[in-house]
Amino acid sequence: MNCLVEEALMSTIRNENAQCILSGVDSFDLNKEEMKFDFDEENETSEQVPDPTIYGCSNQIIIKEAEALSSIKPCQEYNRKSLELLRTLSHDLRSIDFKISLYITACNNVRLIPYPEHIVDESPEGLHGLTQINDVIPPVKYMKKFLERSNHLQLHEQVVNLLHWLTVQLRQPKLVDIPPENHETVFHRIPYLVNVENPDYMFKIVVNNLSSNHLQWQASKGNHSTKFAFYAAKVEHLHSLIHLGLYPFRKVAGPEGTGIYLTSDLKACLASSPPNWVWGKSVIGTQLQTVAVVEFIASDPSVKEIIEKCSSGCESRQYFVPANNLIQARYILVFVRDTHQIPLETLEFLSKQNEAKIPWRRILLLGSYLALCFLSWKTVRSSSYNANIWEITARQLLRKLAFNHELANSVALNT
After folding, report:
1. Which residues of 25-57 are buried (b: 16+ CB within 10 A; e: fewer)?
2. pTM for this structure?
3. Do 226 and 297 form a contact (C-beta atoms < 8 A)?
4. Which parts of the sequence belong to the PARP16 N-terminal domain (predicted)?
5. Backbone φ and ψ of 379, nearest 5°
6. For residue 132, how far is the Cα from the chain centroid?
7. Cα 148 to Cα 89, 143, 348, distances in angstroms
8. What does each C-alpha distance from 285 to 279, 338, 385 come to in angstroms?
């Protein structure tokens, strides 16, 4: 299929910033040796080394590209998915761009949950095949142009299949871009707020009221009072956090025990959530640092509040929450640490250049076809002319032979 921009523009660095890490979140002011992961809610024990077949460590398993491509399943109902994806792209493009960035970052760093099993199986070959599809996802600005019926360009069917799963099938919870003038309203909901840094972007997580995650939260909440605080949500974990909530393995060991630690100090929270490289074609940025604003049940007896003093002398709060069902993510703060990206003006220029070449290619193709037809006609004509010459020569030889034969017979009779 045709592409709006050539492969040199569309492709990004394969497995950019790929690494194998254990899923977890650093607690505040804790030593790395004290960290451990708690799986007792599922009666499992954590392993020290991640399984490369699960986490997709490409430096430990060599996978042939042919095997990865063969693991990709055929796309079903391409036309329907294209139309639904086109309708989705008519809304908030920045939220869709951010969602793709989170998915690709999770795909390159940790175990991908949720996983598109209808596209590829959850295996090393399947994960490698998924990265092959990720490499040809175009910038969000041009996806709608790809999908328009009047356009002579088309989006690859596997890209449509993947984006339909990510933006249509996983449309809940929904990410809503909050304008900068409303950021202060969110910060006012956090008590004892200190060391505030204005984010470049803020997204609200709108949960479906009928989802199991929301119903579980409502059952746990009951008549309890709630508070808001910051949670050190790493970029590579946000794909899972948004769709499935906080996992049990998000717990860390700390002064109050093994659980989830929250804070009202944004600076301390950012220190526990380092920047990470994301999608290279994102209009937001290529290196992001993220923090989640969560709502938690503060009046639950198991929740503990810890008073801390900052270097400036003001007091902040740190909260210990033992169970993940007592927390609900509400907002995502995005801090852009590297704004290097493909300029949209460059993309626009290259796309116009590519479109301008198409009529000339058609003229060249038509001219080549006409030249080939002319040469073929000349060849046939020359062959026909030569055949006529040989036919005339043969007839003259036959006549001469017949005349000579008659002449010989007459001489014989006279003698």
Report:
1. bbbbeeeeeebebbeeeeeeeeeeebeeeebbb
2. 0.68
3. yes
4. 88-166
5. -65, -45
6. 11
7. 11, 9, 17
8. 8, 6, 71
Number of C-alpha atoms within 13 angstroms, CB side, residue 307?
Answer: 3
CB 102 within 8 A of CB 229: no
Distance CA 233, CA 28 (A): 13
Cα 340 to its chain centre, rounded Å, is: 18
Distance of alpha carbon 94 from alpha carbon 106, whole angstroms: 18
CA distance 147 to 83: 8
Burial letters for 301-334: b for 16+ Cβ neighbours within 10 Å, e otherwise? eebbeeebeeeeeeebbbbbbbbbbbbbbbbbbb
For the segment 259-297, what is each residue's pLDDT rounded down to a tens digit?
Answer: 999 999 999 999 999 999 999 899 899 899 999 999 999
- Per residue, the 3-state secondary structure of the chain, as one string, reads CCCCCCHHHHCCCCCCCCCCCCCCCCCCCCCHHHCCCCCHHHCCCCCCCCCHHHHCCCCCCCCCHHHHHHCCCCCCCHHHHHHHHHHHCCCCHHHHHHHHHHHHHHHHHCCCCCCCCCCCCCCHHHHHHHHHHHCCCCCHHHHHHHHCCCCCCCCCHHHHHHHHHHHHHCCCCEEEECCHHHHHHHHCCCCCCECCCCCCEEEEEECCCCCHHHHHHHHHHCCCCEEEEEECCCHHHHHHHHHHCCCHHHCEEECCEEEEEEECEHHHHHHCCCCEECCCCCCCCCEEEEEEEEEEECCCCCCEEEEEECCCCCEEEEEEECCHHHEEEEEEEEEEEECCCCCHHHHHHHHHHHHHHHHHHHHHHHHHHHHHHHHHHHHHHHHHHHHHHHHHHHHHHHHHHHHHHHHHHHHHHHC
Task: List, for residues 166-186, the tens digit of each pLDDT value.
Answer: 999 988 899 999 999 999 999
